[in-house]
Amino acid sequence: MAAPLRVLLVDDDPFTLTMMSSMLRTIGCEVVGEATSAAQGLSEGHLHSPDVAVLDLDLGEGPTGIDLAHRLRAVIPSLGIVVLSTYEEPRLMGYNQPPLPAGSIYLVKRTVVDTAVLERALQMAVDPDLREGLATPASATHAASGMSDLQIDMMRMVAAGYSNAEIARRRSLTVPSVEKAIARLIKQLGLQASPAQNQRVMIAQVYYQLTGAVSARLT
What we know:
This protein is of the alpha/beta class. Helix content is 45%, strand content 12%. The chain contains nine helices and five strands; from the N terminus they run E-H-E-H-E-H-E-E-H-H-H-H-H-H. The chain has helices at 14-26, 38-48, 65-75, 115-126, 128-131, 149-159, 164-171, 175-189, 199-211, and strands at 6-10, 30-35, 52-56, 80-85, 105-108. A five-stranded parallel β-sheet has the order 2-1-3-4-5, sandwiched between helices. The radius of gyration is 19 Å and the shape is elongated.
């Protein structure tokens, strides 16, 4: 009988941490460490040398789950990595996100509808052969799939309420360039203004749906 996977779990939300820990134990994993911050997660990784790390993407202020993944992989080269997030993809969290470490599995939290989804992600993370020819759990097409990094960052800044002038300042662009970029973004998203709602509000709604902040059913 194969030994259970030894898992390090890192999530800054205590409730999610408890829930995920329970799910991992249900599928037969040994949770060797739990942490609520990147620093604590790195310390637990040094201490326990797990087989796989399950990391939340957004760990609050400071290093992200991707940053932690790279630091853990530097210490444990064979470490399997599963990054969990409400975001449909890491770029939605902010500009210039580093790539995931090689072989990592990115799992959107809303897709974890049962323990089988989590178990498959863990198996793919630790066994490269299982990834050959298979779509990873994060491969589903969504509104941001074909967008450039600039378009995604524009969408994020519009959702944050920044004016075109402020977006131009932050990205070292001219205001007309920002206006054209937002017009292209609106076209790509297929948004049309109505008397009851303007396009910038609609862009913000799409962004918050992609980040998991609101349900598409509410718009």
